[in-house]
């Protein structure tokens, strides 16, 4: 096709609307914008937290004050005014905490229904236990009792603080220290809720655990904290989905996720991120600055990150693995799509400490319209990591001629027995590929989807079945009109 | 079935086809021969609807409708098939999935029931045998890692599955050894019917020993300089394009 047709197609692509851009009208209970020790004490008090946690937050805040926002990533945005953000916003009806689904605001339930989340336990044919985080408070956790029968703890983070303070205290900040980075420090000071899961020794979690995040209130920052501990010989698959309504202003999302896998344990963490990406002019959209890290503490442990990132105006995210235990395995499978004026700087870090540790990185970046997509990854093999292996593959796909793809791999190898492989490719959806598909009878849009799905196949394969279908659809929706 | 009148087409400022007239009726096989750069492939691609070629004059009528008005996929759904000279690779998409999507898209357009994965596998069994195609090839990504011969056989296999009314074979014989040529040719022949037609674009006459044309057209510098029956291809082989073209001029 000639460049004019392409421009035309891109225009159609751009004009797609964000499908999840509705706002739920629920009375919220929030603090005025701004951040100081008082706000942090308020949040902590509101959540009836023990003194040690209040102090923990305050120390994080004091450290944060000494830090500067990082600017090494390949992203551009206007300065964030941290005093203009609301750090706590809870739906009012849940101030006393809903005891069951009946007590949850029906409008909230309707919101989830629009999102297609099967909150109603009777509709839970899928067998997914959902912990729903709405703005800052976890609204309801389904399937809790069934899981409890096996000793599995799956609840909101706040609840874990109340019910299992010893676990929280032992592991919180043990993978992502408060001083780790600017956004992690901010999160540590002001996190409001999130999910907590503990899988006891030898237990294979019988269902996928799932959290659905949604940012609703205007000017609200969302700072969830997720902590998952897989005790010896246990196994869990965790799914995380995210959406946010359309708003003209940018909303900040700075989450921290910590995973801990002990001996022979395995954690599979899958994310489908569909925050509002902003409009075609780059107005609005979520700023997503997230720190995700997993520690393979035990021998033979395994942590696998799979992410499908189609949303957010800005994505700054590097789910990483610290491969401490001998024979431990870290995996990172990623699809990141940047269309409109989205900017994604995402990748992973694999830190090999133990012997015979292995890691795999498969990254698929798709850029369309004026999107900018960067892969940034580090593979670090420390002195004592004998027999470590890494395989990295970073592929970029360009749609149109106004987008960009960038790759920033970093290899730091201190042990000569290491095997490290890195492959990278950049390709454009070719006019010849599209013509070939169309000549066989496929519409232009179907042709693009077919080619993009083929490009992403290795990552889709890693997602749990239902999530894979959702991810595939999401990608199609996000790409609709992009080359149309 | 196909009426081409005074067709001129090209890219940007270069006219490649300089006035083509061609009539193809159901049941006929036409061979279009010509030296490199004469416009054979351009003609094939213009029929299939490739947008990079601009039509500046003339008309193409297919089954009574203005073909030039139709998008490539609409032409495909109307029964036009192009076997590519250089079949395209689509990484990560299995050959079967691709072909089933294509077939179902065409069936939808014709208001026919789509085939599910099992029905489709049944549907393609004897067609695979026809082209001597290994099952393993079906599950590999489209054309990726295929040998030259496999790619060409795969094109004719797709044609066998999609059952076009008008097939345009662009240099399908190039890069084939003699055994593969026989397989491909017998595949093409077995698909010949009274209600479909084939245009064979080729540089050499050797394919025409197997796929016997009813008409042969010689294309030189964007014009059909001579038309005739099968004998013309044989003369051409003996005398070369230069002399045939010179005699035409």
Task: Compose a concise summary of this entry.
Chain A is of the alpha/beta class and 484 residues long.
Q: How does this model look, in words?
A:
The complex is a heterodimer of chains A (484) and B (249). In chain A, 24% of the residues lie in helices and 35% in strands. Chain A is globular and about 65 Å long. Chain A is an alpha/beta fold and 484 residues long. In chain A, strands 5, 6, 8, 10, 11, 13, 15, 16, 18, 20 and 22 form an eleven-stranded mixed sheet that branches. A ten-stranded mixed sheet of chain A has the order 4-3-7-9-12-14-17-19-21-23, covered by helices on one side. The model of chain A is unreliable at 9-16, 93-99 and 118-128 (pLDDT under 50). Chain A has one domain. The longest helix of chain A has 17 residues, at 444-460. In chain A, strand 3 (128-134) and strand 4 form a beta hairpin. In chain A, helix 3 (51-65) runs antiparallel to helix 8 and helix 6 crosses helix 7. Chain A has eleven helices and 23 strands. With 249 residues, chain B is α/β, with parallel strands linked by helices. Chain B has one domain (2-248): Rossmann fold (3-Layer(aba) Sandwich), CATH 3.40.50.300. In chain B, 39% of the residues lie in helices and 29% in strands. In chain B, the strands form three sheets. In chain B, strands 6-9-10-3-11-12 form a six-stranded mixed sheet, sandwiched between helices. A four-stranded antiparallel sheet of chain B has the order 2-1-4-5, with helices on one face. In chain B, strands 7-8 form a two-stranded antiparallel sheet. In chain B, helix 6 packs parallel to helix 7. Chain B is globular. Chain B starts with a strand and ends with a helix. The relative contact order of chain B is 0.18. The model of chain B has no long low-confidence stretch (mean pLDDT 91). At the A-B interface, helix 9 and helix 10 of A face helix 2, strand 7 and helix 3 of B.
């Amino acid at each position: 096709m000639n460049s004019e047709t392409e421009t035309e197609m891109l225009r159609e692509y751009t004009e797609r609307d964000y499908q999840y851009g509705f706002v739920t009208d629920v009375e919220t209970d929030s603090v005025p914008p701004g951040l100081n020790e008082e706000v942090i004490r308020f949040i902590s008090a509101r959540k009836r937290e023990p003194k040690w946690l209040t102090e923990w937050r305050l120390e994080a805040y004091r450290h944060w004050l000494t830090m500067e926002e990082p600017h090494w990533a390949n992203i551009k945005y206007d300065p964030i005014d941290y005093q203009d953000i609301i750090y706590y916003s809870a739906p009012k009806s849940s101030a006393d905490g809903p005891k069951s689904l009946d007590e949850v605001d029906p409008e909230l339930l309707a919101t989830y229904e629009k999102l297609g989340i099967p909150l109603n336990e009777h509709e839970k044919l899928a067998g997914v236990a959902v912990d729903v985080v709405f703005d800052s408070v976890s609204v309801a956790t389904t399937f809790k009792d069934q899981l409890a029968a096996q000793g599995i703890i799956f609840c909101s983070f706040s609840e874990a603080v109340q019910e299992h303070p010893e676990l929280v205290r032992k592991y919180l900040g043990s993978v992502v220290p408060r001083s780790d980075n600017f956004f992690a420090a901010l999160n540590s000071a002001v996190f409001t809720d999130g999910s907590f899961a503990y899988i006891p020794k030898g237990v294979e979690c019988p269902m996928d655990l799932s959290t659905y995040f949604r940012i609703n209130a205007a000017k609200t920052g969302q700072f969830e904290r997720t902590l998952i501990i897989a005790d010896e010989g246990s196994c869990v698959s965790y799914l995380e989905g995210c959406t946010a309504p359309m708003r003209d202003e940018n909303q900040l999302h700075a989450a921290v996720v910590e995973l801990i896998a002990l001996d022979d344990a395995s954690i599979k963490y899958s994310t489908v991120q569909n925050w509002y990406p902003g409009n075609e002019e780059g107005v609005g959209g979520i700023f997503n600055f997230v720190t995700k890290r997993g520690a393979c503490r035990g021998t033979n442990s395994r942590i696998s990150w799979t992410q499908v990132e189609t949303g957010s105006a800005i994505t700054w995210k590097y789910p990483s693995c610290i491969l401490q235990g001998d024979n431990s395995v870290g995996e990172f499978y990623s699809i990141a799509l940047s269309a409109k004026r989205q900017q994604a700087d995402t990748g992973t870090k694999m830190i090999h400490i133990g012997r015979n540790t292995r890691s795999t990185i498969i990254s698929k970046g798709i850029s369309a319209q004026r999107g900018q997509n960067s892969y940034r990854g580090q593979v670090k093999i420390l002195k004592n990591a004998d027999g470590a292996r890494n395989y990295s593959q970073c592929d970029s796909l360009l749609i149109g001629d106004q987008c960009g793809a960038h790759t920033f791999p970093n290899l730091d190898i201190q042990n000569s027995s290491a095997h490290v492989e890195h492959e990278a490719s950049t390709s454009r959806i070719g006019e010849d590929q599209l013509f070939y598909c169309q000549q066989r009878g496929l519409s232009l849009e179907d042709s693009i989807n077919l080619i993009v799905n083929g490009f992403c196949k290795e990552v889709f394969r890693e997602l749990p079945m239902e999530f894979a279908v959702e991810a595939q659809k999401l990608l199609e929706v996000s790409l609709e009109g992009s080359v149309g | 079935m196909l009426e081409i009148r005074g067709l001129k087409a090209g890219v940007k400022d270069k006219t490649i086809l300089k006035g083509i007239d061609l009539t193809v009726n159901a049941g006929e096989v036409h061979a279009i021969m010509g030296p490199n750069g004469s416009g054979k492939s351009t003609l094939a691609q213009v029929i299939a609807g490739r947008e990079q070629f601009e039509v500046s004059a003339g008309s193409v009528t297919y089954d009574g409708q203005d073909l030039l008005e139709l998008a490539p996929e609409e032409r495909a759904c109307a029964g036009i098939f192009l076997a590519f000279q250089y079949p395209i690779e689509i990484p990560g998409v299995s050959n079967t999935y691709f072909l089933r999507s294509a077939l179902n898209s065409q069936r939808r357009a014709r208001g026919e029931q789509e085939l599910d994965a099992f029905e489709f596998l049944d549907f393609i069994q004897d067609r695979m045998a026809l082209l001597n195609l290994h099952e393993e090839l079906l599950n590999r990504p489209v054309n990726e890692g295929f040998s030259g011969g496999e790619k060409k056989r795969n094109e004719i296999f797709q044609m066998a599955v999609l059952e076009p009314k008008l097939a345009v074979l662009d240099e399908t014989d190039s890069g084939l050894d003699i055994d593969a040529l026989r397989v491909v040719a017998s595949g093409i022949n077995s698909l010949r019917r009274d209600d479909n037609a084939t245009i064979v674009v080729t540089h050499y006459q050797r394919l025409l020993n197997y796929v016997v044309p009813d008409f042969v057209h010689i294309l030189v510098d964007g014009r059909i300089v001579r038309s005739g029956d099968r004998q013309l291809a044989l003369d051409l082989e003996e005398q070369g394009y230069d002399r045939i073209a010179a005699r035409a001029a």
